[in-house]
Specification:
5-stranded parallel sheet
């Protein structure tokens, strides 16, 4: 085996590997993506690659890393090519994606990123920057103007550091040149993600140039979206195994499941691909779709990660293979389902069955620690909003409370097996300080409930919430996860 995946080595790949099948030299960059991680490469990049395969050559992607050069260093020697390995049990499918035309590293040359986004042929900017990347206050939804990077972006808008900063700088340059704005499409798991990124952009633009903010508000578009595909972290063993099959190395590979879904609010301010023909659902109301996904898939994933991880399970499929955990998942779904208003076309019972089948897929090797990251940013929309709705309706929250208690217990950094783990969370220090010196499970819950940056005030002051989570946490601490599941 020699060399890397590249334009030059495409022809020599095994016959069963799917190749782009179009002239990559004819591709124009119509999309800039901020945060070119594994999820984007396994989800949106596949859709834009489908558009190119259909003959619409306007939808090549320029990827942007807002932090490290890792993905650039993986893809640049490969002419932007990478493999998507789809695993379903023992069945595997390998597809080479050619949509990515290049990758920029924002801290190395922020001006180049802004200039690329200001190109007349760019019509869409997509984002997967995680919840914390929007620099929004969880309670108010407004831009955190005291954030050091936000302060820097406002003071020096020509050299931005944040996702909102790059959007504002590029939109300002387009306005100066008489170009229309691009459509901003958030692809992060956030409720009302379109409204949130709009709030961040307008908040920053208003501090820099109120007239710019007015222009963006009037002419721009920030459609809400819902994205769904499980994309576990790639391991060195995955890269080595694929290299043995391809005959070339591909450090930029991603692995995923067959299922994929993208729902987009039908609100654009410029050209777009024929999304409907590409399998994307266009709708006037994304919220019911995103609520179902956040509360049934993501909320359950977080519960599995914390409780399963504490019990010593490394992978999601191992957790749901245990009958007590599988039964708990069903109880959690029973509670969450009462808070939904399913859109036409969504059969909640069938969705639940499909989710359990996806969770049970052993080929994914989806690690609990990966899902457990950034819990303080994820729980408000995945679990706490569901709890608030249940309590408002006078309903019980035992399963949801146990999931939250698992997250609090996770902050100890030690599983029941004695194995330690890193609490990978932007508020890890804040959470640790809040829990320091607490004498009982009830005290620990009150300490966390008092953090308005995580727990909404209306919920943190609700004795029903504190009691239910406190009882669940006491059970975890005294009896362990499996015994507490019942």
């Amino acid at each position: 085996m020699t060399g890397r995946l590249s334009n030059a080595t495409l022809a020599g790949l095994p016959a069963q590997v799917e190749r782009p099948g179009y002239d990559r030299s004819s591709v124009r960059i119509g999309v800039v993506h901020l945060g070119i991680g594994a999820f984007h490469r396994a989800h949106q990049a596949v859709v834009f690659d489908d558009a190119l395969r259909s003959g619409d050559m306007r939808w090549g992607i320029l990827g942007v890393s807002l932090r490290s050069p890792g993905v650039r260093d993986q893809l640049q020697p490969q002419d932007g090519l990478f493999s998507v390995l789809v695993r379903d049990g023992d069945v595997e499918r390998i597809r080479i994606i050619g949509a990515v035309q290049g990758v920029l590293v924002a801290p190395e040359d922020p001006g180049a990123v802004v200039e690329a986004m200001a190109s007349p042929q760019v019509h869409i900017v997509t984002l997967t920057v995680t919840e914390k990347g929007y620099r929004l206050d969880p309670a108010s939804g407004s831009l955190i103007e005291t954030d050091p990077d936000v302060v820097a972006d406002i003071a020096n808008p020509g050299a931005p550091r944040t996702g909102p900063g790059f959007l504002v700088a590029a939109l300002a340059r387009r306005r100066q040149r008489g170009l229309p704005p691009f459509t901003v499409v958030s692809c992060d798991n956030l409720p009302q993600n379109g409204a949130r990124v709009r709030s961040a952009v307008l908040g920053m633009a208003g501090r820099i140039d109120p007239a710019l903010a007015d222009w963006i508000a009037e002419a721009g578009a920030f459609p809400a979206t819902m994205v769904d595909r499980i994309v576990p972290a790639t391991t060195p063993d995955d890269v080595a195994s694929l290299a043995a099959r391809l005959g070339v190395e591909d450090p930029g590979m991603v692995k995923t499941e067959p299922f994929t879904q993208w729902v987009i609010e039908d609100r654009f301010c410029g050209p777009r691909p024929d999304f409907a023909a590409l399998g994307v659902q266009l709708t006037d109301a994304v919220a019911p779709w995103e609520d179902a996904k956040l509360r049934l898939l993501n909320g359950t994933h977080s519960a599995i990660a914390y409780l399963g991880g504490l019990a010593g399970h490394a992978f999601v499929h191992q957790v749901v293979a245990e009958p007590p955990f599988a039964a708990f998942v069903e109880r959690l779904w029973d509670e969450a389902a009462t808070t939904l208003s399913p859109p036409p076309g969504l059969d909640v019972a069938a969705y639940r069955r499909d989710l359990m089948a996806r969770f049970r897929n052993p080929a994914l090797q989806h690690r609990t620690w990966q899902i457990a990251m950034d819990g303080s940013q994820k729980l408000p929309q995945r679990l706490l909003a569901t709890i608030a709705d249940r309590l408002a309706a006078g309903q019980r929250i035992e399963a949801l409370a146990l999931a939250v208690a698992g997250w609090i217990r996770w902050q100890d950094g030690v599983a029941e097996t004695g194995e330690t783990h890193v609490v990978d969370d932007p508020l890890a220090d804040v959470l640790r300080q809040a829990l320091a010196g607490t004498a009982s499970a009830a005290d620990r819950v009150r300490a966390i409930a008092g953090l308005s940056t995580v727990v909404p005030t209306r919920l943190g002051g609700d004795d029903r919430f504190i009691t239910a989570v406190g009882d669940a946490l006491a059970g975890l601490e005294l009896r362990g996860v499996v015994a507490t599941l019942g």
